[in-house]
Amino acid sequence: MNMKIRATRLTLALAAVGLAFVASAQPAAGPPRGPMNFATFDQNGNGVVTEQEFDAARAERIQTRAQQGYQMRNLANAPSFEEIDQNGDGLVNPEEFAQAQAAHMMPRAPR
Questions:
Q1: Taking CA atoms, which of 20, 23, 75, 93 is between 20 and 30 Å from 35?
Q2: How far is CA 95 from CA 9, 17, 51, 82, 106, in A?
Q3: Phi/psi at 91 (5° precision)
Q4: Residues 74-82: what's their mean pLDDT?
Q5: Are the CB atoms for 18 and 24 separated by under 8 Å?
Q6: How does the average pLDDT of the chain come out, rounded?
Q7: Model-level pTM?
Q8: Which residue, 49, 54, 72, is CA-closest to 62?
Q9: Residue 37 and residue 94: Cα distance in Å, rounded?
Q10: Which residue blocks in 68-111 are alpha helix, DSSP H?
Protein backbone atom coordinates (compact mmCIF):
# COMPACT_ATOMS: atom_id res chain seq x y z
CA MET A 1 0.00 0.00 0.00
CA ASN A 2 2.80 2.35 0.87
CA MET A 3 4.29 1.86 -2.63
CA LYS A 4 0.98 2.86 -4.26
CA ILE A 5 0.86 6.10 -2.26
CA ARG A 6 4.45 6.92 -3.20
CA ALA A 7 3.83 6.16 -6.85
CA THR A 8 0.70 8.33 -6.84
CA ARG A 9 2.56 11.19 -5.17
CA LEU A 10 5.43 10.90 -7.63
CA THR A 11 3.03 10.88 -10.57
CA LEU A 12 1.21 13.95 -9.26
CA ALA A 13 4.50 15.77 -8.64
CA LEU A 14 5.74 15.00 -12.16
CA ALA A 15 2.42 16.12 -13.62
CA ALA A 16 2.62 19.40 -11.69
CA VAL A 17 6.18 20.02 -12.91
CA GLY A 18 5.12 19.24 -16.48
CA LEU A 19 2.19 21.64 -16.29
CA ALA A 20 4.40 24.36 -14.83
CA PHE A 21 6.89 23.86 -17.66
CA VAL A 22 4.17 24.08 -20.33
CA ALA A 23 2.72 27.21 -18.74
CA SER A 24 6.13 28.90 -18.59
CA ALA A 25 6.78 28.06 -22.24
CA GLN A 26 3.77 30.11 -23.34
CA PRO A 27 4.72 33.56 -24.64
CA ALA A 28 3.96 36.37 -22.23
CA ALA A 29 1.00 38.48 -23.18
CA GLY A 30 2.34 41.84 -24.20
CA PRO A 31 0.83 44.88 -25.76
CA PRO A 32 -0.78 44.47 -29.14
CA ARG A 33 1.68 44.60 -32.00
CA GLY A 34 1.24 46.54 -35.18
CA PRO A 35 -0.93 49.52 -35.90
CA MET A 36 -3.85 50.42 -33.67
CA ASN A 37 -7.28 49.68 -35.11
CA PHE A 38 -10.17 52.12 -35.48
CA ALA A 39 -12.10 50.71 -32.51
CA THR A 40 -9.17 51.43 -30.21
CA PHE A 41 -9.26 55.10 -31.16
CA ASP A 42 -13.09 55.33 -31.10
CA GLN A 43 -13.22 55.20 -27.32
CA ASN A 44 -16.91 56.09 -26.98
CA GLY A 45 -17.99 53.77 -29.81
CA ASN A 46 -19.95 56.38 -31.77
CA GLY A 47 -18.37 55.52 -35.13
CA VAL A 48 -16.08 58.56 -35.42
CA VAL A 49 -12.85 59.60 -33.73
CA THR A 50 -12.31 63.09 -32.37
CA GLU A 51 -8.87 64.60 -31.92
CA GLN A 52 -9.22 64.18 -28.15
CA GLU A 53 -9.99 60.45 -28.51
CA PHE A 54 -7.10 60.09 -30.95
CA ASP A 55 -4.62 61.81 -28.62
CA ALA A 56 -5.85 59.89 -25.55
CA ALA A 57 -5.65 56.47 -27.25
CA ARG A 58 -2.18 57.15 -28.63
CA ALA A 59 -0.90 58.46 -25.27
CA GLU A 60 -2.31 55.41 -23.47
CA ARG A 61 -0.59 53.02 -25.88
CA ILE A 62 2.71 54.87 -25.59
CA GLN A 63 2.52 54.81 -21.80
CA THR A 64 1.58 51.12 -21.66
CA ARG A 65 4.37 50.09 -24.00
CA ALA A 66 6.92 52.23 -22.13
CA GLN A 67 5.91 50.70 -18.77
CA GLN A 68 6.37 47.23 -20.24
CA GLY A 69 9.80 48.12 -21.59
CA TYR A 70 8.92 48.06 -25.28
CA GLN A 71 10.48 50.50 -27.69
CA MET A 72 8.21 52.72 -29.74
CA ARG A 73 9.86 52.50 -33.13
CA ASN A 74 8.91 54.98 -35.83
CA LEU A 75 6.80 57.04 -33.45
CA ALA A 76 8.08 60.18 -35.11
CA ASN A 77 6.72 58.88 -38.43
CA ALA A 78 3.23 58.17 -37.09
CA PRO A 79 0.56 60.19 -38.89
CA SER A 80 -1.04 63.08 -37.05
CA PHE A 81 -4.77 63.51 -36.56
CA GLU A 82 -4.78 66.23 -39.23
CA GLU A 83 -3.18 63.86 -41.75
CA ILE A 84 -5.83 61.22 -41.10
CA ASP A 85 -8.77 63.69 -41.10
CA GLN A 86 -8.72 64.06 -44.87
CA ASN A 87 -11.83 66.24 -45.20
CA GLY A 88 -10.86 68.51 -42.30
CA ASP A 89 -14.17 68.22 -40.42
CA GLY A 90 -12.51 67.46 -37.07
CA LEU A 91 -13.71 63.83 -37.11
CA VAL A 92 -12.15 60.69 -38.51
CA ASN A 93 -14.53 58.07 -39.86
CA PRO A 94 -13.59 54.44 -40.57
CA GLU A 95 -13.03 55.11 -44.28
CA GLU A 96 -10.63 57.99 -43.65
CA PHE A 97 -8.84 55.91 -41.05
CA ALA A 98 -8.46 52.91 -43.40
CA GLN A 99 -7.22 55.10 -46.26
CA ALA A 100 -4.66 56.85 -44.06
CA GLN A 101 -3.49 53.58 -42.57
CA ALA A 102 -3.11 51.99 -46.02
CA ALA A 103 -1.18 55.00 -47.30
CA HIS A 104 1.11 54.98 -44.28
CA MET A 105 1.74 51.24 -44.55
CA MET A 106 2.67 51.34 -48.25
CA PRO A 107 6.14 50.00 -48.79
CA ARG A 108 8.68 52.69 -49.36
CA ALA A 109 10.55 52.70 -52.63
CA PRO A 110 14.23 51.78 -52.37
CA ARG A 111 16.63 54.71 -52.61
A1: 23
A2: 61, 51, 16, 15, 17
A3: -135, 145
A4: 87
A5: no
A6: 81
A7: 0.65
A8: 72
A9: 10
A10: 81-84, 94-105
Give CATH for domain 34-105.
1.10.238.10
Instruction: Select the more confidently predicted residue: 29 or 97.
Output: 97
Domain boundaries, the chain: 34-105
User: How far is it, in rounded angstroms, from Cα 93 to Cα 96?
Assistant: 5
Distance CA 50, CA 63 (A): 20
Q: Is-contact 43 99, C-beta < 8 A?
A: no
Tally of CB atoms within 10 A around 43? 15
Q: What one-letter code names the amino acid at 93? A: N
Query: What are the φ and ψ backbone dihedral angles of 21, each rounded to 5 degrees?
Result: -65, -45
